[in-house]
Amino acid sequence: MGQANEILGRLSPIRPWFRDRTAASLKADALAGLTNATIVLPQGVAFAIIAGLPPEYGLFTAIVVTVVAALWGSSRVMVSGPTTAISAVLFASLSGLALPGSETYIALALALTFLVGILQLAAGLAGLGGLITFISHSVIVGFTAAAAVLIAVSQLGPALGLAGGTGGVLHRLGGIGAQIGGVNGNAVAVAVVTLASLIVSARISRRLPGYIIALVAGSLAAVALGGEATGVATFAPLDAVLPAFGVPDLQPATVGALLPAAVAVACVGLLEAISIGKSFAIRRGEPYDSNQEMVGQGLSNLTGSFFQCYAGSGSFTRSGLNAESGATSPLSAIFAAGFLAVLLVLLAPFVRFVPMPAMAAIILYVAWKLINLTEIRHIVATSRSETLILGATFLTGILSELDFAILVGVVASLSVFLNKSAHPLVAVGAPTEMNGRRVFMNARTFDLPQCPQIRFVRIEGPLFFASVEHVEREFRRMEQEDGFKTCILNLKGVGKIDLAGADFILSEARRARTRGNDLHLIVANPGVLKVLDRLHCLDVLGAQNVHPHKSGAIRAAVARASDPICAGCDIRCFTECSAKPGA
């Protein structure tokens, strides 16, 4: 009953933020929504082009998906809709199945969006939000960089007045190279004017409608240069201004062909949305529920597939602008969708005057901004394993397909996680003075003297079937280096222990006792204690060998230490050594 109520609560359209709306907050949300609508108008067109769809599909996605995700999502300021990453994955996944822009291609995109919504909604209702954290952030960084390169290469042709070509990065570059003699100077000039206008607008203020300013500047440049008469292509008029209802084509053969791509798009969308939502929630000190966000994203894509929308997710650009513009609740995103619908009705007749090179320049700018060079440098400088994940994802996206790059990145990410889990930290500690107090630090790293009879070992990580071999190997290495000793094993950093881990502890206890030594455990975690008790470790060790704090373990181990050896020892490693002979 409790789980059913939780599911119903996640699906309820009555959201917690409904109760705290005021006239001031409504005004703030409306102003933020208006600012957002001016940004997404050209963005929606650009993203649809990246996805291989007619321009209006990006705008429909920025209306329907945005409203549903705002109502059922968890973030107060995140704005969902079309994104560059998902647009690139969708294009890479579908362009091999149908001609981009064709009726078949559009039908496949809508069916794919339906499947994405079902997968995301099911994951959210099943409470799988925590699994997203197992996928490294480096996967998204590498994938996004690969998507940016593909997007940029796909727009080089239109920016130069050439055919855009098809296929992956290398194939497209080869196609552009073969046409290089046919570059249209006017198209290049329009692209340069547009790009320069966009950069200048961004430098002046992020709140300026830079994309619209750039498109106007590019359009005026095209008119001044002679427009279509000089070979500068322009957009066709929009086929529709507002979305219409339609049922996606979900034939079994279509579903089977699209399912792998749907999994990739669903994964990318959830990673984007949850990472954006979490970052803003932490920054603003607001609660955040990953499972509720998954439900919101799933419902938005599921609903959008019936209203000529393709798969969407959280947009970092629009969310950042939303927060900066003073948004206080998801109503700002709903206002943005409403204002966009009005702007679309008013401005739709002017779309046919927008030059293709101008839009290509805007998409090139978007692609450049998509590459997070600061984060890439940080990953490369700080972690070899994360660099491996980043490199594998990026290179796969460049040399193969984007949806396959996500799979490679996820597999690499999970492999690194499993490898780390199988190799927990096993370190020998020793006490030393620091800032006037005695603390335990790594004996090898800091070259600290150790007790000749007692070894203090700490394990940080799970002690289970996959890690026991590594831990045992470390114990044997310690024995070879400084002989057999009574061992104090600190398990405070062990969050998980299974039968194999318990067997290892019993084996070490018996091994020590056959040599006249002993094994003491420091255990504070009730869960670990319960497992050790259930697996009869405590019966073999005895209650006197299990301690909640290191002071008790040290006291017991020192008391059993050989007095003759202590009498000739001048290390006096522990404070308890003061009670032994020779002190």
UniProtKB/TrEMBL annotation:
The chain crosses the membrane at residues 30-51, 57-74, 81-99, 105-127, 134-156, 176-200, 212-235, 255-274, 331-351, 357-376, 388-418. Keywords: Membrane, Transmembrane, Transmembrane helix. Residues 444-557 form the STAS domain. Its main location: membrane. Pfam families: STAS, Sulfate_transp. It is found in: Membrane. InterPro entries: SLC26A/SulP_dom (IPR011547), SLC26A/SulP_fam (IPR001902), STAS_dom (IPR002645), STAS_dom_sf (IPR036513). The keyword Ion transport does not apply. It is a multi-pass membrane protein. One of its GO terms (cellular component) is membrane. GO terms for biological process: transmembrane transport. This is Putative high affinity sulfate transporter (SulP). It comes from Oceaniovalibus guishaninsula JLT2003.
